[in-house]
Write a structure and sequence with these properties.
This protein is an alpha/beta fold. It has 15 helices and 11 strands. The protein has 2 domains: about 180 residues, D-Maltodextrin-Binding Protein, domain 2, CATH 3.40.190; about 150 residues, D-Maltodextrin-Binding Protein, domain 2 (3-Layer(aba) Sandwich), CATH 3.40.190.10. Strands 1, 2, 3, 4, 5, 6, 7, 8, 9, 10 and 11 form an 11-stranded mixed β-sheet that branches.
């Protein structure tokens, strides 16, 4: 039995209820012969996850039932309470993982496999969530208008030489909030606020679009540099319609001479009332293993958390880089204040 919900963007509550009712009705009733299965509530796109689920099922015989939504899964699990069918929560960034823990919908997972493979800085101190992939928050720089060595740190983006030369998506986006939270963790709130004000003063236009829009803006000459996640460059290089824009831009990894480039993660957590706990742990361990980690790298060009999994050829072409070793839990602690600072500074106005 397999059901995949594919919600894209906002959908009305009636449709959600209809799809979710179908999902519940498809689950085995108490007392019936139950095939091994695991139910996943996922913020990650089905096209990325299905190849991994198929590999897991082929190797274990455990079916994976996946429900996808772009938002609202934490609220849904909380509303379902003890009757929730959710076993595993897949999230696309540290904000979603923290949100799930704060909502009280996760549980501790005791797995030597997970704690051995995944570094302490990339998992919850109480083992409520675990990172699966890493993505660097890089600088997209014009090949024509930015010389090698001109951009070396995040801090330098607030310097006057970049006035009118920077593009950015909304400061309230999860990825930019995480970057600002890291600045708070490293430098303190006052200095991080001044940095964001300086960055805002250097913007070439009002924050808008997603990370791919920033690459296009640099390629079109609207700005010379922008912030974005590393894997979006891979997405554009693979698309003939967007390839020329991506080829006009270099990826730069900041702070290589000190703490390293900021990273965010996708990750997973065990739902609090997981009805298929043993199967869920097997899936979580599989997703952290070399085979799944290599698939993540090849399909989505995200950096594996497993040291045994090779990078994709494209990521290797960008070169090795030093990643910030600041524990993600420390970043998560500052994300609420970081978002407040974004609004206080009027970054998006």
């Amino acid at each position: 039995m397999s059901y995949t919900g594919r919600f894209k963007g906002e959908v009305n509550s009636f449709r959600i209820l209809k799809l979710f009712t179908f999902f519940i009705a498809a689950l085995p009733v108490a007392g019936a012969a139950m095939a091994a299965e695991v139910n996943v509530y996922s913020y990650r796109q089905p096209a990325l996850m299905q190849p991994l689920f198929d590999k897991f099922t082929a190797g274990t015989g455990i079916e994976v039932n996946s429900l996808f939504a772009e938002k609202g899964l934490a609220e849904r699990i909380k509303a379902e309470g003890v009757n929730s069918p959710a076993d595993v929560i897949l999230a696309s960034d540290i904000a979603r993982l923290s949100e799930a823990v704060e909502a009280g919908i996760t549980q501790k997972v005791d797995s030597q496999t997970l704690t051995t493979v995944i570094p302490a800085s990339l998992r919850d101190p109480a083992n409520h969530w675990f990172a699966l992939t890493q993505r660097a928050r890089v600088v997209y720089a014009s090949r024509e208008r930015v010389k090698p060595g001109e951009v070396t740190t995040y801090e330098a983006l607030a310097e006057p030489q970049w006035k009118g030369r920077i593009c950015s998506r909304s400061g309230a986006s999860d990825y930019n909030v995480a970057l600002l939270a890291a600045q708070i963790a490293h430098h303190g709130e006052a200095r991080a606020t001044q940095w964001l004000k300086g960055l805002r003063a250097n913007l070439a236009r009002k924050p808008q679009g997603d990370d791919r829009a920033q690459i296009r803006a640099v390629a079109q000459g609207e700005c010379d540099i922008a912030l974005g996640n590393s894997y979006y460059m891979a997405v554009m290089l693979a698309d003939p319609a967007q390839r020329s824009a991506a080829e006009a831009v270099n990826i730069l990894f900041p702070n290589q001479q000190d703490r390293g480039a900021h990273i965010n993660v996708s990750g997973m957590a065990m739902a609090k009332y997981a009805p298929n706990r043993d199967a869920a742990i097997k899936l979580m361990e599989f997703l952290s293993g070399k085979e799944a980690q290599q698939l993540y790298a090849e399909i989505n060009n995200e950096y594996p958390v497993s040291p045994d999994a090779p990078w994709s050829a494209l990521m290797q072409s960008w070169g090795k880089f030093k990643a910030d070793a600041l524990p993600l839990a420390d970043i998560a602690r500052h994300r609420v204040r970081a978002l407040e600072i974004v609004y206080e500074t009027g970054f998006d106005q």
